[in-house]
Amino acid sequence: MSMTTTSSAAPGRPSVLTEKQRRFITKLTVLISGGMFIDGFILGSIGIVMPAITADLGLDLVWQGLIGASALIGIFIGGPLGGYLADKVGRKPMFTIDLAIFLVGSVAQFFVAEAWQLFLVRLLMGVAIGADYSIGWPMLAEFSPARMRGKLLAVQEVAWYVGYLISYALGYILTVSATADWNIILGLSTIPCVIVFLMRLGTPESPRWLMTKGRTAEALALAEEYMEEADRKDLQAQTTTRKLGVRALFSPAYIKSTVFVSVFWICNVTPYFAIGTFAPIILEQFGLEDGLTGALALNGLVVAGSLVSVVLIERVGRRKLAIPPFWISTIALVVVGLFSQQSPVIIMVCFLVFSFVNAISTALTGVYPGEVFPTEICGSGTGFATAASRVGAAAGTFLLPVAMTTLGIGTTMIIAAGISLVGGIVSQMLAPETKGKQLSETNAPTGRRPEAVVHSAS
Predict the structure, then answer these.
(1) Closest CA to 247 of 260, 238, 258
(2) What is the pTM of this model?
(3) Which CATH superfamily is domain 19-203+241-454 in?
(4) pLDDT tens-digit map of 210-238
C-alpha cells in the first residue's frame, strides 16, 4: 500500500512521513494484520472439519452448535476483557499476551480427543481473538495518519478473510486428497502464531494512550519518532484531564457511537458466520453436489469484497461502503429464502452476491471502532462492540443447524435477511462519515461533555 499520498494537514504537499515512520507504520499494520490472519485461520478451519468431527466424536446437534460457536463465545468474553486491560495497563503488554494465548490453544488442538475438550480449547482461543480486536485496532488507529487510517484499518479485515480462506483451502486439500486428521488441520494455526508472536516483541506503546495517563514527555518522544506532523499536533491537543471509564460508553456523549458500532457489527457478522460455518452442509441441502467447493468459492469472493473496501474507503468515504451492502444482502437472502426449492444455480449466485457485498461492509467493522471512541475507552468500546457482535454470531451459529431442521432452510434464510435489513436501517440513520478527519474530530462526544456525567466512572 502506498504511503506517499498528500497530507491532509497541508493540501498539495507530499506526505511528511519519514522513511523510519513509513517503515514503522507498515510493520505495525503487518503485525496487527498477522493477528487478524490468525483469527480468520482459527475460525475458518472449524467449518471445513465439522463433518469429520461430527462423525469421529459422534456429535449431536447441540454439540455441533456449541463447538461451531465456541470461539465466538470466547470472543464475547475476550473482547471486553482485553479492551478493558488495554485501556488500563496499555496496548503494548496486551499486544503480545494475547498472541501467547493463541499459541497455547493452537498447540492444544493437536491433542484434544473429546467434545468438551475441543469446546474449551477453542473457547480459550476465542478469548484471545476478542482481545486482539480490542487491542490491535485502537493501537493502529492511534498511530495511523488520518489520510490513510481507514485504508490501514480496512486491511485488517482483508487479512482476516485471507486467513479464513487459507485455512478453509488447506482443510479442503487435506480432507479430500490426504484425509488428514481433523486435529492436524485445526492445529496448523500454530505456525502463524509462532511467527506473529516473535514479530510483535518490542512494539512501542501508543503515544495517545500514554497521554491519557499523564506520561506526556514519553508520549511526545514516541510521537516524534513514529508519527507524522499533523498527527503529532492532534496528539498535543489531546486533553489529559478527562476521567473516562466504561460507563462513559453509555453516557449521552457516546451512546450513539456505542449503539451504532455494536448493531453495525452484529448485523454484518451474524448471517456471515452462521452461513459460513455450515456452508458445505447448507449448499448440499440446496442440491449442490460438491458443497465444499461451493463454500470455498464463497470464501474466495469475500476476500475480493474486502479488497474493494481497502481500495475505495479513502476515495468514497465510509458511509457509501457501509450502507448499500446491507440492502443488497437483504435482497439476496430473501431470494434464497423464497426460492430455496428452485435451481441450485440461482441459490449459488445469491450466496456469491451476499458474500461479496457483505465483505465490503464488514471491512468497516475494523475501521469505525478505532475512530469513534476516545483513547481512554477505545479498547473498552471496541471490546463491548466485539462482545455484542458475538452474541449474534454465536447465537446464529448455534441455532442455524436447529433452525434448518425445525423451520426449514427457506425460513431460516428469511430470518437472516431480516438481520441484514436491520443493519441497513440503523446504518442509514447513525453511520458517521470520518474520512480524512483527525481522531480528535471523529471521537468527539455527540452529546454533553462526558466529564460532566461520568467524571468518576474510571
Answers:
(1) 258
(2) 0.81
(3) MFS general substrate transporter like domains (1.20.1250.20)
(4) 998 889 899 999 999 999 888 888 888 76
